[in-house]
């Protein structure tokens, strides 16, 4: 792989909910291809902006490069410009999982084991409510972190980029009721005018009271119309949540979007006992809600039985440029926090984009990438091996039903050292955004760039 194709820009999460602003270039590329009269629409009926002729060499070369990637995993191949980015990082995308932790608290307090499993499913569905964003987040620098405290229920969260090639993020969260761990190593496939996203990873949830452990394998996603048309995201396929301590299982199906939006967002499935008997019916939409209802052996809801809402997507801000939820906005807030020097909020490129300065964002992004390359060269020169600060390779080699293999997704363990750090109070007036970002192993290499 040559230096042109080897890039610091790998996707993540949902490939960051993807290449949204590839849509920005769509009209130019479609014109070049002779698609001026092609009417490509979003499933909801909305139409892209009228195509404008632009057959510049730059656009032709851009499309030629994209065409070369058809059928390939572009997770770490395609270098993307700042104008398609959102002022957010992949580690912050991982932290969005924490928005609906009240469902996990509810699971920990539920006596019925199958309803308990359903509440865990409600928590796991929650992040899909923010998955329609069509902008790409910044990729973490090796050793970059993101931390979060939720005072309402005592949650502490930390994510770290533990590998650069292949791109892997690890995260840990806990409060007095449960423990959550995730390793995220997504892959993609470029299909020409769409990108398939495979959520390769491993999620484990442990309830402290019962000792039960749950394993999640989420469905795939697709970003449609990334070259021609109005970009939109669909989540589709099987969702599997297994209580590995008992064998009980939640199996859901995310219906692929059909013609004229048929089935778009629909989710349905059941909670199964250890013997495979259906006991609860689950139904909803992955962008809005999930409900639970007792069912018969055929899986049909019992007449007159109570319906319980497991998850309700919170109202989103209107007119947000990037489609951020209120929770995502909170994760981007820098005031009143004193995070680690390696924290995503301190990235100068992310902060510059947040402030609307795309020129500086691009310059800072390039500078960070150059520093990362310099670190790699210095590490090779010293013949040293990089190691994360807060996670370590796991000695556990057990994978569970439906999970990805160790080859696809290695295991990482949280060391617990982060939780031993003294809580550092911040000046309420201080804003860490874009300031003092330092995830480096060899800070002496960067003294002239600080």
TrEMBL record:
Gene3D superfamilies: 2.40.160.120, 3.30.70.3490. PROSITE patterns: OSBP (PS01013). It comes from the Eukaryota. Residues 339-403 are annotated as: Disordered. InterPro entries: OSBP_sf, Oxysterol-bd, Oxysterol-bd_CS. Residues 343-352, 363-387 have a biased composition (Basic and acidic residues). It holds the Pfam family Oxysterol_BP. Belongs to the OSBP family. This is G10760 protein. It comes from Coccomyxa viridis. The gene is g10760.
